[in-house]
Amino acid sequence: MSASWAAAVQTLRLAPVEQRAPVLFVHGLGDDASAFDALRQRLEQEGWPHLHALSLAPSDGSESLSVLARQVAHEAQALRARTGARRVDVVAFSMGALVTRYWVQLLGGRLMVRRFISISGPHGGSALAFLARGKGITQMRPGSRLLRALQQDTHPWGNTEVHSFWSPWDLMIVPASSSRLPGACERVFPVLFHPWMLTDGRVHDAVVEVLGSPAVAR
């Protein structure tokens, strides 16, 4: 992290703790809730009071993304009930970002989500998905029926604020530009490997900045 970036983060005015939404983390293919341990620790240090990471089951791509999206919906509703919050923020990685997008666009999640940060999500599909099988894997292939349905939605986000973080050097999302998300605020990070997006300090700083920004009436 550059000195100028670090200084900017240190002087950033975050919203008061009581104004910060609960955060739900959604992991990627072959992972579980522990994938977000480093980022959760960072947010805890910054004072976030309500953080929850779920473990999708199964996470190996064998199940349809719609089934996984319903798990996200259930966890988000439970988090809202526990905290009394009207809306939550979601930080999702890789396959989890596409699962979250499905929930937000097609299952009413836009009514429950204040901010959605997609980190290296295969929103345009990945050519590597042709090398494996499974319902979810097939849906992550470029041009799949699911991806076409999501892309045809002309008003996908409602009042949800959407951000896309991605790396042009991502070797899991092929092409890397598939992580770009229509209508999202975009940030590009020169991170060498797909999983490093969850541990890179610059990405963590950006997550803190986005989630900690004062809410704008929408």
TrEMBL record:
Origin: domain of life: Bacteria
InterPro entries (UniProt xref): AB_hydrolase_fold
Gene3D superfamilies on file: alpha/beta hydrolase
Pfam families (UniProt xref): Palm_thioest
PANTHER family found in the cross-reference section: SLL1969 PROTEIN (PTHR37946:SF1)
Protein name: Lipase class 2
Organism: Myxococcus stipitatus (strain DSM 14675 / JCM 12634 / Mx s8)
